[in-house]
Amino acid sequence: MDNKLQVANALATVLKDQLSVADIQNKIEMPKTSDLGDLAFPTFMLAKALRKAPQQIAADIVAEIDQTGFEKVVATGPYVNFFLDKKLVGANILHEILTDGAAYGNNTDGEMRNVPIDMSSPNIAKPMSMGHLRSTVIGNALANILVKNGYNPVKINHLGDWGTQFGKLMVAYKMWGSEAEVKADPINTLVGYYVRFHEEAKANPELDDQGRAWFKKLEDGDVEAQQLWKWFRDESLQEFLNIYDQLEITFDSFNGEAFYNDKMDEVVNLLEDKGLLVESQGAQIVDLEKYNLPVAMIKRTDGATLYMTRDLAAAMYRKREYDFDKSFYVVGGEQREHFQQLKAVLKEAGLAWADDIEHIPFGLITVDGKKLSTRSGRIILLQDVLDDAVKLANEQINDKNPDLANKEQVAKEVGVGAVIFHDLQNERMNSFDFNLAEVVRFEGDTGPYVQYSNARANSILRKAGNPDLVNAELSLTDAAAWDTLKLLGEFPATVRRALNDREPSVIAKYALHLSRAYNKYYANSKILVEDNEKDARLALVQAVSIVLTESLRLLGVHAPKEM
Ligand code: ARG
User: Fold this and answer.
1) Residue ranges of the chain with pLDDT lower than 70?
2) Is the beta carbon of 341 within 6 A of some atom in ligand 1?
3) Cα 339 to ligand 1 centroid, rounded to whole Å
4) Sheet (strand 70-76) strand order
5) Is 109 helix (H, G, I), strand (E, B) or coil?
6) Strand 79-84 relative to strand 296-299: parallel, antiparallel, unpaired?
């Protein structure tokens, strides 16, 4: 049983006239230091009702409470402090983990309701940036965390495959491009055209008009424009798929912006019917003044639709298609206003489910304190990062464990895992300066450190012959094991908190924490010594391995058994 619940149940027998079990559970705190106990209950809020000083209330509760199942219960000033029966609690936790295996910490909160996650969503004809990497790995981790909490996530890659930039690209291609050049190295070549277009357009603004005109042709179904578009899209997507492959991240849908072309009238008609569409300098807009937001542009002067129009159509499509509980958008914080506008327009149109749309923003990755941008050429190519990380992992393994079987595979799991973990261990909104050496550092607070802790646990289990311990005697009296046991017991609550906060970093930080506690325990105890607690110690090692492996899996990182 959950430790908080055990404490709340005990308290409820004394306080049943004042508070419910759930109320009590909400008030239970963790004492600052473990010498004050494992859980504490403050009595201040009872003073008025009971007309007694909190100190007195705490003392009275201790006198009355049934202490069975606890090491002791004491009053410390206004607090009732509970010391859990470590042997019993520890044995229960180990038994539960060994029984449940990877399913430990699963819950059914989500009742299988659908949650579409708009994630990754890179732009065709541009390289996948570090920002898109963040969206990809955060979205993927949230999807795994949703499943663990009983939801059904739908991973949607809302590809940026439509918009005026395609018009510009077509103009550039027709002026300076060659088919062979694009085929040889699609994205780099297309980016080159794009950068050149922007440079030349500075001196020659007429190019921008041509770009807009070509995009209009595309929207109107012009055959040449359509062919070029499809070709650019296919070539780009191939490169993206290659990266997703390396990250081992899959999608349920690649319906990008273009998918909504034939679903745009519905949006425009709805807004028209509700009398929300107004003309402004030839363009069609929705006024959002009452939300304190800038106007949302729905159609350009030339009738072309916008990013916003396509997002409105996508939101409505997803509601219809998935009848979602929540609809997530894992998109950088710089688009916060866009999503506020999106929700506001839907709300104005009378769609109550607009409130279930959730923008899940994340911070910027900078280089030397500066923003990345395709136009300026200040970009980090994800492929380079992954390649370098795997190379570094390879060197480390050759150094430490040259005879390891499947070296290549493990190096890949460690290198790619390092990149993913580094991204996820930061709270989403924290911006960070990107520094490759930092990402692939294999000591300190890194993914490889967690992987290594797990590999060491597995190596002990191998030495012991991988015993089946579910039915063994699992009581541990060794006080040094307590920190690790307690953390193991907190995993189910951690899984819930990660979803509640939409924060994969909660899981990453937990995994680091557990690794540290376990390594400390491991350094100070002789696990394989033959005595009557050997099974319990091995069970602890096995439980650590199960929970570390599962934590890494939630983040989208492999846990090699040897490295
Ligand atoms: N393609 C966009 C970009 O790279 C992100 C799209 C996010 N998703 C959305 N539904 N707007 O900035």
Assistant:
1) 1, 373-379, 440
2) no
3) 10
4) 39-42, 79-84, 70-76
5) coil
6) unpaired
